Amino acid sequence: MNKPFELTILDKHHRLGWAEEATAVTPLLALTGINNNEWTGCKRDDQCTPLMGGTKVRKLDFLLASAPFSDSEYLATMGAIGSGHVVACCAAAKALGRKIVSHLFWEPLSPGVPENLSYIASVSDKIYFYNSRVSMALNNPALFLKPFAGGCAIIPPGSTNPAGMLGTVRAGLELAAQVRAGEIPQPGRVYVALGTGGTVAGLSIGFALGGLAAEIHAVTTVESILSTKFRMQNLVSGTKKLLVSLGHKNAGNITPARIIINRKYVGAGYGHPTAKSLQAMELMKKDGVNIEPVYTGKAAAAMIDDIKNGFNAPLLFWNSMRANLPPVTSDWKNNLPEKLRRKLDE
Known about the structure:
By secondary structure, this protein is α/β, with parallel strands linked by helices. The chain is 39% helix and 15% strand.
């Protein structure tokens, strides 16, 4: 059977083949029962393979097969001490036999943060620590401004650049194909956590290419200045240009799926759990879905509130979280910079 035309175009871009099989969409019966909602489901990107799953695998599938990453022995990236993005980059570097340097900034120790940090410390060849995102930008601006720094190819925050976002365009096409096949009803709304924006922008293009009429409710996990409509428009524009260059001549003219940016659930800011995100974690567990409180938990909380408030339509939660971590080294703390070790002990 031939692939859909759009996927054939995407496959003209080099990729590693890490996201071949469609991830399942499972019903969320506990959430559907809250207010007799029509249908509630979860896109299970935690079941992405290989590595440890998560939507970041889709981005890295394309990004690490493109220059300069495909030819670089040394990779580097940045994120909070419990960043799922940094975890994914470390797992990818290990799978490819590359060296990885992790630049980390502090965030509160919410559920999942120590576990992610233990894996980052077990795999990273070098770790640099900064007190905050601002401190990182001021002390090492090359991380954000150059493709290389310190001899390493820099994987951008969230793996968000046009090449990486081809992975989430492909994800949008994948969901559209599942709807066309009758596997699930067409969602009225799709709830996605909004960090760097690459997942949201890529899905909006993929939905449009696949003919999926669904609103994307992008629930911010970062401050307003980092989640503007202008940034989203730039991400969409850059990815459309890349698609045109790959031969999809109509990509420049498509109207992406509608994106609604919801800033009501960010709480105190990036890395800070909220009461609602913690409650969402417990509700999702009833349907066998594990999420965390600072990213996916906030997106789930927005969907749960909509259900409670009587919005009755098929709703889909996009679980971008990784699956369980493999065993870590027993002495992982010894690999941390002294300043970070002291802060953890405090």
